[in-house]
Automatic annotation (TrEMBL):
This is ATPase. SUPFAM superfamilies: ATPase domain of HSP90 chaperone/DNA topoisomerase II/histidine kinase. It holds the Pfam family HATPase_c_2. Coiled coil: none annotated. It comes from the Bacteria. Residues 15-29 have a biased composition (Basic and acidic residues). Keywords: Kinase, Serine/threonine-protein kinase, Transferase. The keyword Heme does not apply.
Length: 147
């Protein structure tokens, strides 16, 4: 799915949806939102949380948030929702540019710094979607399996 982007027009969220989750200002706050959502699910289902699945979800949320800050003009919206056996993470930013995979070396063969976030997201998440926003920018929505 990450080789080809799924692009839709986002329908937007209601103001009530936005009010229930504050937009993170830094990746650590995105990770805290994921931890809260997963802990809530484990309490509600009376099951133990899969530590590896939680680590994957934390890493994906952190990478999406970091990429929005570094390459997308900042985070404009952030949502975490439990869906079936997974966790849906949506991060919106101001950029219309699609995420890209950058080769690990430049044309002279020197190793590049960074450029690993999007491949990490694509490897750990399912149902990766990039949606154009009506007001400009994009929303990347992924589902990270929790089991």
């Amino acid at each position: 799915m990450c080789d080809k982007h799924t692009t839709d027009l986002a329908t937007g969220r209601t103001s009530a949806d936005r009010a229930r989750q504050p937009r993170p200002c830094k990746p650590a706050e995105a990770r805290q939102a994921v931890e809260r959502a997963v802990a809530e699910r484990c309490r509600a289902t009376h099951t133990s949380c899969d530590a590896d699945a939680l680590s994957d979800a934390l890493l994906v949320a952190s990478e999406l948030t970091t990429n929005a800050m570094l390459h997308g003009g900042g985070v404009t919206d952030f949502q975490v929702d439990l869906v079936g056996p997974g966790l849906r993470v949506s991060v919106s930013d101001r950029s219309d540019e699609l995420p890209v995979v950058v080769p690990p070396t430049d044309p002279q063969g020197r190793r590049r710094v960074g450029g690993r976030g999007w491949p990490i997201v694509c490897r750990l998440a399912r149902d990766v979607r990039v949606s154009d926003l009506p007001s400009g920018g994009k929303c990347i929505t992924v589902v990270v399996p929790l089991s």
